[in-house]
Specification:
By secondary structure, this protein is α+β, with helices and mostly antiparallel strands. It has two domains: 45-145, Rieske Iron-sulfur Protein (3-layer Sandwich), CATH 2.102.10.10; 169-439, Alpha-Beta Complex (Naphthalene 1,2-dioxygenase Alpha Subunit, Chain A, domain 1). Helices cover 28% and strands 25% of the residues. The chain contains 14 helices and 22 strands. It has helices at residues 2-6, 24-27, 29-40, 125-129, 164-168, 172-179, 205-213, 222-227, 239-243, 278-295, 347-360, 366-380, 418-432, 436-439, and strands at residues 14-15, 20-21, 45-49, 58-64, 67-73, 79-83, 98-100, 103-105, 112-114, 119-121, 145-149, 152-156, 189-191, 196-200, 245-252, 257-264, 301-308, 312-315, 321-327, 333-342, 392-393, 410-412. The strands form five sheets. Strands 13, 14, 15, 16, 17, 18, 19, 20 and 22 form a nine-stranded antiparallel β-sheet that branches. The chain is globular.
């Protein structure tokens, strides 16, 4: 198997034509190291949300692949993303998750950097450097490109990567369903509280695959559905609206993005999702009617789950959230989850959503625990010498996907693994391509 890796033929491990994918891509340390260069150093990656850094000097310590980065708003209110490492000996210049600062000072030798990344101070500059150190050459390392989209902030290390909106392509419709207000207004979301973080003993591609569109695993959540953890006590989500809708599995082979949405039936009324809470129910009824008024037929397309290649996943309906699956080794992933609400929603609505989010998602959420158990066991069972000889099966609806044109992309209305095949096909493209010239 090492010969495949050395020769750069990731495509030989991902046979989407036959629906066979090698377990090596989930367990190989060699492939994992190659991913850091081929995938995470070139793709556009989600870094954070503008609501986390509203004021000059506000910062949030994020990640891009294995790299620690600082998302910060400088004195002029410009937003930057810097590599979180001192240019002198590499120590982290910011060791806190978030806060406000005028400078970032390295605790090792005391070099300090302004919020615009410039090297502001060097101890003993005259004595140690004869006053000849060119500080303009030794500022913090900044990403090659940064993009803002409806409050979300993205970055890439590759100056040759296409503009973010080109990278996103027609997946934009589904990201809008996450970031826009529930009543159809553009943008308007904010992060609720902090960011949940936890580690899982699995490869980062398992959760990305799950959110790209694994519509086959609901048996995993049977006990959660029976418990009725949703606010209405009838299930995880507003199941009445789901039953009156058509499920759409949507993939974009040219980009690797994928989503699961529902096409709501004509004139389906809003379902009371929050039990006997009249304030919250009235708010969402208002949002339902306003969304239809503003968007017309587009209001029928409701987001469920999605994955923007490589590893930014989201739930576009309740619980509305972003998850990034940070790689920490071939068999370890650090999960980060942001929860979103409309910034101008009543406090009672935000409180109701917060309580639901805690029950549903994250390390304490009942639904996420089901998934984590699956991913951990699958990873452990795939690293053995014998197990690695046998590929996984990805043959659902192979060659039989619908292309109905209801929404852009390749669309299937059945249980299908087309979305997941799309993800791994694009992964192979990144792993084998020498530059963005080939990836385009």
């Amino acid at each position: 198997m090492a010969s495949h890796i050395a020769n750069g033929t990731a495509r030989s491990l991902v046979d989407v034509e036959k629906g066979r994918i090698s377990r090596e891509i989930f367990v190989s340390d060699e492939l994992y190291l190659k991913e850091q260069e081929q995938v995470f150093a070139r793709a556009w990656l989600f870094v954070g949300h503008e609501s986390q850094i509203p004021n000059p000097g506000d910062y949030f310590t994020s990640c891009m692949g294995e790299e620690s980065v600082i998302l910060v708003r400088d004195r002029e209110r410009r937003v930057h993303v810097f590599l979180n490492t001192c240019r002198h000996r590499g120590m982290k210049v910011c060791r806190y998750d978030e806060g406000n600062a005028t400078v970032f000072t390295c605790p090792y030798h005391g070099w300090s950097f302004a919020t615009d990344g410039t090297l502001a101070g060097v101890p003993y500059l005259k004595e140690a450097y004869d006053d000849e150190l060119d500080k303009s050459e030794w500022g913090l390392i900044e990403v090659a490109q940064i993009a803002h989209y409806k409050g979300s902030i993205w970055a890439t290390w590759d100056p040759k990567a296409p503009p973010f909106l080109d990278y996103l392509g027609e997946m934009r419709l589904h990201l809008d369903n996450l970031l826009d207000c529930r009543d159809g207004r553009e943008g308007g979301s904010e992060v609720l509280g902090g960011v949940q973080k936890w580690t899982m003993p699995c490869n980062w591609k398992f959760p990305s695959e799950n959110f790209a569109g694994d519509s086959y695993h609901n048996i995993s959540h049977r006990s959660v559905d029976l418990a009725g953890i949703g606010p209405s006590g009838r299930g995880r989500r507003d199941t009445d609206q789901h039953r009156a809708s058509e499920r759409l599995l949507i993939s974009f082979p040219g980009t690797g993005h994928a989503a699961t949405s529902i096409l709501q039936g004509e004139d389906v009324p809003n379902t009371s999702f929050f039990g006997d809470n009249p304030v919250v129910n009235e708010y969402f009824e208002h949002c339902h009617e306003e969304r239809k008024r503003r968007l017309g037929q587009k209001a029928r397309v409701l987001g469920v789950v999605a994955n923007i290649f490589p590893h930014m996943s989201f739930l576009a309906r309740q619980p509305r959230s972003i998850a990034v699956w940070h790689p920490r080794g071939a068999l370890q992933t650090e999960a980060w989850r942001w929860f979103l609400v409309d910034k101008d929603a009543p406090q009672e609505v935000k409180d109701a959503l917060r309580h639901f989010y805690m029950r549903y998602s994250g390390p304490g959420g009942m639904t996420e625990q089901d998934d984590m158990e699956n991913w951990g066991y699958a990873s452990a069972a795939s690293k053995g010498t014998i197990a690695r000889r046998y590929p996984y099966n990805y043959q659902q609806r192979l060659g039989r996907g619908d292309t109905e044109g209801v929404v852009p992309g390749t669309v299937d209305t059945h249980i299908s693994e087309e979305n997941v095949r799309c993800l791994y096909s694009r992964w192979a493209d990144f792993m084998d391509a020498s530059s963005w010239d080939e990836l385009r």
